[in-house]
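Q: I have two molecules that I believe assemble together. Could you output structure tokens for the complex as a whole instead of separate predictions?
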Amino acid sequence: MDKNLHLESVIKTHQITKEKTLLDKHIQKKNEVKEALEEKYGSNLYSSFNSGSYAKNTAINTKFDFDLVSPFKRNAFGSNGTLKEMYENVYDFLYEKYKNVAEVKKQKVSIGLEFYADSDGDKIKIDVVPGRELNQDQYKDDENLNLYVYYKYGNIDAGSERIKTNVQSQISNIKDRADKEKDSIRKIIRLLKVWKNTKYNYPTKSFFLELITIKAFDNSTITGNLWDKLKAVMEYIKDNVTNDGFTLKDPGNSSNDLADTLTDGEKQQLANDMKNMLDRIEENDENIKTYFPENPKFKEEDKSKNKYSTNGGMPVPPPKLNFG
Amino acid sequence: MGDRVSEINTVIESIPDVKLIKPFVQGKFDIEGSISVFVEGLEQALNFDVSISPQYPFKSHDTETIKFSNDDLLEYKHIMGNGSICIHTAHSPVLSEKLGYDIASVKAWIKKYYINKDTDTHYEHLIISEKAFKGSHFAFFFNEVEYTFSKNQYGFVDYSTLSNGVFYKDKINSNIVQTFYDRNKKILADVKWNFQLKALSKSLGLFIFLKDAPSKNQRWVFDSWNEFEPLLSQDSLKFLHSIEKNAKKEKGKHLPLFVGYNITDKEIHWQVIMLEIGNFPIYGEKVNQQWLTMIDGNRSIDWAMTRNCSYKYFFGRGRLNEKLTNSRILIIGIGAIGSIVAKTLVRSGCTKVDFIDYDIKEPENICRSEYSFFTGITNKTNDLINELCLISPFFEPTKGGYEFSEAFDFLLKSHLTDTSIKEEIEKYLSEYDIIFDCSTDNDLLYVLSQLKINSTLFNLSISNHAKQLVCANEQNRYEFISTQFNGNVLEFDVDDLHNPTGCWNPTFKASYNDINTLVQLAIKHINLRFEQDKALRNFVIETDDTDCLTIKLKEF
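A: Yes, here they are, computed for all two components at once.
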């Protein structure tokens, strides 16, 4: 099989524009939440913005992540207000407002809103990320924010207030790349997200995969077709992620090291998973389908190929091949 | 033969610190002599009578064929009832070498238990000679109960007979303790066993909790009733008397008396004395105008065998990781793979295991699954529950059965688009920590892949001739299995299938050995990942039998 053709099809069948209706529902719901926050917090809140994969153009259509960053003013919760108070206040507000129509959950640095299925059975998910500028009125100048860590996040302890970031810089990190490289990086990030979605609750965040992909491009020679590039990135991850001193600097704040969001065991698992993938695909190209499946919903069937083999014109159904 | 005797004398004399006191001579069966053995730390050497059986230097079954005896050492640890030291040494077919090992072992015993008086970390049970009572041996199995007995507490027990078997050349009757009652027959503690054991018919016995072991030197159990005199209160003796008086019609029948004592602060052990109704070792005597119940001290005690069958001892020699044994497990499909998985889990310490299967066991299923011919045609679920109840006294099936299995399949497959029923099913399945889908029902595989379940789910299936075993446990189970079997990944014979007579549904060819080899390896790998606390990944076990058999596990 042609691995490259398959990967291109994976990208194509996972294009977010293929799920236009669902995408529009997400955009609409995100705007509703944004307006509700603005109404509640008024001038204490700067304009909320989308920071998720949609904003970075790395989204896939099997898992929408709409992260709504809400930048609060330094004194929004009093001059002595803590980040925890900010986080809890936003949670309480969202819980009261949406408790009857959505599951409202406290997550690592965000508050998750998972709206109950609508009449089409679609579930809209929006993550609200409350952040606070470092000093009163400074956000306009530097766009820096402090986040609250609700529960243990890799090596970062729960209750920690150490995550300072600049989400706009994170978004620009990919957007500002040269066009050709930007396209390759985005494709690889999308493929790695497709792979991550084959797992239950994979501990590696999408943002981690984004940064490590970019770092792989920065630190090794990545050329050739899509498979060659994906393979090179996977090899980079396998060979580097467990090394002592391996860091992944947050473009929003170079003192944030995303490598800290994984424990040593989780980094080892990530390296092992990369090794297994490379080995299994090396053994048999077909295994690439297991790791990087096309989205069956948008898969174009090869009409020229008869699914059942023919035998003198009589169709023969495929036999059962797995037993127990 | 003379050469053998003279070789033994020569070898013994050549061993440092060992002297011949009485040279070895050929007895009627054994070669016998006496030696002294000196070890640094002794004031003077210890003497031993030594007898060497004709099998020496080979063992007889699991027993050494040389005995070093000294009756004065009976009170020490690891001395057998006949006064001989309990030794187990390395194998050697060379007499001189084996004698060297055995004497070294005697020296080690003297150092450890005679000079240093070491105590072992594990508890050594009282020594009881295994004697038949009225023509049969008796064994009683007990389990820990959530009740604290007090010193000299007495009352009743219920016990049930498990089976009548053969103990070497004698009969043996094996029993389980079911319930402890106080003297007014109020329940004190119910003993936990599986539901089939609890349903057995019950007989009455008695108990007394002494707290201290009925032993001399914590080594030997009492052998005559007079040794009990300081321990049994007048109240407890009167209780025995009243029991015997009220059971006159049962004269001649046996009645077990459970004698309990602490072996650690928290753990108690039970020994059983066999009593005969109408022949209790007690009598009445008038003392100061008052009738007292006295012990007939000259009578010897008939001890039965007891075994502590609580979970930690029953599975003490080996079990799976606690993440498996503590889990509530559902097995869907109990054909060849599913029944092997079920039996392995239950034999390895899992207790909460349910099954779903609508199928009937036929005679031709038996050759490669965990069913027996004896039970004939019956539902697989019923049959497997019976099989597993025979194995583990702790097996607790809670749900399952034929009707449940039919309803499960119908509800799951016909209501996939019904949100509320789907959620109910998801909730129900999520109550299981682990689900093994061994049904090889690809429709079910698909349906399960569409559900949001918190359980860890394993799908196990194999290819024809058991060439490969595929285990899927990740979110992409459906795609993974489809790719492995129906893509161009796994290579196996698709034509040489088994066609049962009168059946249009061909099945795979593979023996119990073929299948079990792969299933055990799969369970071992899953257990390892739990032990290592590592994430589970889909995996394939591939066999290659072109030359020597090779088996390779590939994780994805």
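A: One point stands out. The first strand of chain B starts at residue 18 and ends at 26.
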